[in-house]
Design a protein that fits this description.
Strand content: under 5%
Number of helices: 14
Number of strands: 0
Amino acid sequence: MQQPFVTRGWAVRFFFYNSCVPLVKNLQATLEMIKWEHSVFALPFALCGAMLAAHGVPSAHQLTWILIAMIAARSAAMSFNRLADASLDAANPRTKARAIPAGLLKPGFVWKFVVISAAIFVAASWELNRVAFMLSPIALVVLLLYSYTKRWTRWSHVVLGFALGMAPAAAWIAVRGSLDPRILLLTGAVTFWVAGFDVLYACQDFDFDQQAGLHSIPRYCGIGNALWIARVLHLCMLLLLAAVIWMFGLGTLAMLGVCAVFILLAYEHSLVSADDLSKLNAAFFTMNGVIAIVFFVFVAFDLLFHGSGKI
């Protein structure tokens, strides 16, 4: 009668030693691989979507599983991207020090990490509601597909934008169990925002993309024109953010958030030029994280206080 218990005990030990122990040993390299700090890009917009759906603060259950789903989805997408681009990263002087080409992580370990992260994402979707669970495989396909788009289209930046832009709509579904077309305005805004700063980021790989036969807007249009395209994409983002404020009947604080995003985007673009990309990392990493957080804070305070008459 003790056999099932013993078998389960060995199963738990097997899982622990084959999954948890390698993860702990490779924790620093794994966090670098998935760029966990970049979660600040999409997460604030996901929280905006959740708060808009709840007309305030969602339940603790919803917030917990939305957070888990976001982290798991991004971990699966980033680690899969590193697998798909391993040979390209090894050939690119800018990326050859990444975990896989540098030998810090083995592909087998990364594949396990992708599968576990994807499974956690699907499980988190199940905990939220039936619609979220049913749509979770489609979301995963979009997130993973992006890794190959730069091999056949210059518009891979927009695909990446949409992959992150799904976050507010997904969070709305997580709270409501249905989709309101209005939240797609925020999806569009995030899509254009991410596409714009990814165009900026791709400028530093202009020479390598030409040599490797990869597709990007800078490669086809030149760095100077690519910077203008990024500005147009960010202008589209601002217009869509203003439409979000109007469609949801938000107040002055939320509109001030759009104004703050405009100022931050203007400063971001002032950091780079066709002749000087030395501050590109500051424009990409720091400013975009600030933009996402600032907009969320203004929208959150508007939702919490505007309708209650406290401001």
